[in-house]
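Researcher: Good morning. I'm working through a list of sequences from a screen, and I'd like to move beyond sequence-only analysis. For each chain I'm collecting a predicted structure so we can compare shapes side by side. This is the next one on the list. No need for commentary yet; just the structure.
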Amino acid sequence: MAITIGILAYQGGISEHEYLVKKACSELGIECRTRWVTKKEHLEGIDAIILPGGESTTIAKLASRFGVLEELRDRIAKGLPAFGTCAGAILMAKEVVDRKTKKVLENPLGVMDISIVRNYYGRQRQSFEIHLEIPAIGPKPFRAIFIRAPAITRVGEGVETLARLDGVVVVARQGRMLATTFHPELTEDTRIHRFFIERVAKLV
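Model: Good morning. Structure tokens for this chain:
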């Protein structure tokens, strides 16, 4: 029986995530469908959700307007596997910190016990690539693409740090939730998507 993976589809690399999900499922030998989620009813029957990058405030406003945000929060709290990349990771964080003022901002989704700083690297390093070691996905470094990236500056109890860069967390897992502060969907490497489907969401 095919699994269905939803992709929150207001902004960001939606089609890129869709491509890697299908490629990852093929490599895992499982049948899967993807569904672009823009309305509350699109959440019915999905087995996992991906929250892509973009602008986290805009995504949250649109998701709230269409009734998706509250429903998504409830479903994730009840065990729906979720994978957030960049702005998606910001949406998932319980605490979002403003880089300049250090104020904790209101975060309407806030399902993962992490604190995250938006645009952590500032103008000096708005966009960069690095070969990142993520032991959980294998020995070969992952080509991580950071674009106006946040950073995870606190992890709560029960949150596993999977990778660090310059002393801050860039990949974290809590139960059936996974967050990366970079954009794995902008590569051809399926290992993080496979890790989410197989070991975080446990859909294989």
